[in-house]
Amino acid sequence: NAGVTQTPKFQVLKTGQSMTLQCAQDMNHNSMYWYRQDPGMGLRLIYYSASEGTTDKGEVPNGYNVSRLNKREFSLRLESAAPSQTSVYFCASSVSGSPKTQYFGPGTRLLVL
Amino acid sequence: AQSVSQHNHHVILSEAASLELGCNYSYGGTVNLFWYVQYPGQHLQLLLKYFSGDPLVKGIKGFEAEFIKSKFSFNLRKPSVQWSDTAEYFCAVTSNQAGTALIFGKGTTLSVSS
Prior knowledge:
Chain A is mainly beta and 113 residues long.
């Protein structure tokens, strides 16, 4: 039982390049989330998917797109990376309904030059 | 809109000192409250959570938190910290409504010297 896994662990991009961050969970959770973590800012929600087939914007969605590929996988895409998107990205998942605890992946450290 | 405020940005303690980290939230409805910990270079791990019932919640590694509804607070405590408690601590809140995400505070960095 791997929990929440993320790939890649680290990535360097040039401004304007695109990339997709992958996230998968094997806990049969319905809800999945993408956060970014910046120093002094805590974690901010980018997008979330309450259940398979649905996605919703969080606090900071600009510059990102998401795809809930199936129940297990939730990807985050940067179409044209900008230096302001340099951050650590965390994926999380939880059971549906409420109350719920979110379980986090190990993170992807992204540097945009 | 929900928000979470953590009052201390950086706390420095010696081993065996007592710890209290403040957390206040802004939300009028029923809430679920969490404390997460992030050790250096690692991902977030759940320390403890409050959903309902006894407002004094005990978590892992000797941590506890008290939910005081009238003060909209959920402060984290530990009677005696260890060097291994050095980490960043995040308070988070979510409403009791299905499909809502966590709102995190900005975090408190705890440094414990041996």
